[in-house]
Design brief:
The protein has about 150 residues and is an alpha+beta fold. About 25% of the residues lie in helices and about 40% in strands.
C-alpha cells in the first residue's frame, strides 16, 4: 500500500510546481534581449533609421511584437559616453514598468560601451501602459514608431 501512494504524491508535487511556475510571469519574462538579426525586415529598417541617434525608442507595429531599443552608440568627444548597465521590468496595476540603470564613462575604450541593445516586450495582455524609469526617474521615449 505504501509503494502505490508514493508515485501519486510525487506526481501531485510535480504538477503543482508546473502550475505555479506557469501561472506567474516574472519580471524577466516581460523583456528579453534579442539580436538585430532576430528582427523582421521592417523592424531592422526602423533600427537603421535611428541608428545614429542616442535615446530610447519603442518599435510598435500594430498587432505585432513591440521592441524597446536602447541606443547609446554615439558619443561626443569630451563628453561622457553612456551605457546601459541593467534593465529590469515588472507589471504593477496594468502598467509595464521598465527600470534602466544608465552609467557614464569618459574612457571610450571601455568594453561596457557598445552598440544599441534591443529588447522584445512580452506579455502585452498583462498591461495597458508602459512607463520607463532611468536611474529611478520617470523618463519619456525619444520616439515611438513603426
Amino acid at each position: 500500500m505504501r509503494w502505490t501512494i508514493w508515485p501519486l504524491r510525487l506526481c501531485l508535487i510535480v504538477l503543482a510546481g508546473v502550475l505555479v511556475s506557469g501561472c506567474a510571469m516574472g519580471g524577466d519574462a516581460y523583456v528579453k534581449e534579442v539580436q538585430l538579426q532576430q528582427l523582421d525586415k521592417d523592424a531592422r529598417l526602423y533600427v537603421d533609421r535611428i541608428r545614429d541617434n542616442n535615446g530610447l525608442y519603442l518599435y510598435t507595429p500594430v498587432g505585432e511584437r513591440q521592441y524597446l531599443i536602447v541606443n547609446y552608440s554615439s558619443a561626443v568627444n569630451g563628453e561622457g559616453a553612456s551605457y546601459l548597465e541593467e534593465l529590469t521590468a515588472e507589471v504593477r496595476e496594468e502598467t509595464l514598468n521598465i527600470e534602466l540603470e544608465e552609467r557614464s564613462l569618459s574612457d571610450y575604450s571601455d568594453t561596457r560601451l557598445g552598440d544599441m541593445r534591443i529588447y522584445r516586450l512580452n506579455g502585452s495582455k498583462d498591461y495597458s501602459a508602459i512607463r520607463i524609469y532611468k536611474n529611478g526617474t520617470e523618463t519619456a521615449l525619444d520616439s515611438a514608431g513603426t
